[in-house]
């Protein structure tokens, strides 16, 4: 692929990701503010976003943060929250024939829910290329890290993010992603099963087991719907 074609592909990925890149800014600001309120320095916030790069587990870590922090609880919570990446990477990995082995590993390191969703949609229409994926992931990653830093610096000025509704930015982005994959009643059934299991587990179990319960219920519901479709066919 020529240099001009690579740049065009990269720019195409940036354009496709632009709305979600903008949407992640307030989420990064909220995380930075929450982390600063929990005693993390701006350097620590920046390093956490740069090295972990997983908004869900970072927010969960802030929810259970204590002094001294229980590293075992933090690590286990991060594992539960991010276990979905195993399924996400297995799915998108089958759609990367144009990627070299190093490029594929690099792509997985920058995998996030939003990036995965956009890459899956692209792969349904045409071949997924490393340059297009880089256009998705690199600007998104940089904005997340910079927004987290800005949020930590401005944390004292923002105050409680929930008072201005910024806490809703995180679920709003995921609602948009889910709707992008909506395929009718089957999708609704999977979402309902996952939500019911998550709510039930949240009421009965401590910690973040509701995340694992919701994910497991969603997988079971998907398998059930697939079997039912095969039988009806």
Structural notes for this entry:
With 233 residues, this protein is mainly α. The protein has 2 domains: 3-169, no CATH class; 182-233, no CATH class. It is 78% helix and 0% strand. The protein is built from 12 helices and no strands. Helix 1 (3-37) runs parallel beside helix 3 (55-63), helix 1 runs parallel beside helix 8 and helix 11 runs antiparallel to helix 12 (209-232). The longest helix has 35 residues, at 3-37. It is globular.
What is the domain total for the residues? 2
Strand content: under 5%
Task: Name the overall outline.
Answer: globular
Secondary structure tally, helices: 12
Summarize model confidence as the mean pLDDT. Answer: 82
